[in-house]
Amino acid sequence: MEVLGPKEVIYRYDGNPDNEEILIDIAGTIPIPAAEDVIMRRGRTWKVAYADVERAANDGHVPVVSVFLVENIPASKRAA
Question: What is the pTM of this model?
Fold first, then answer.
């Protein structure tokens, strides 16, 4: 998924709406990860559950990209 130009990126951690990080990407340089990608945020690794783009209407607003993340626990550390 590619969104060119300025955008607002919202990272939601573990499905918790109270645990979001909002970035305003004026330069359009923040890459949008795809589902199943593993990324670093807040000093930890997270797996992208999915990403969604809400395109802006022609009213001067920028697109909003929501990236839903789940904690990426290595297989060796998961409970059996």
Answer: 0.81
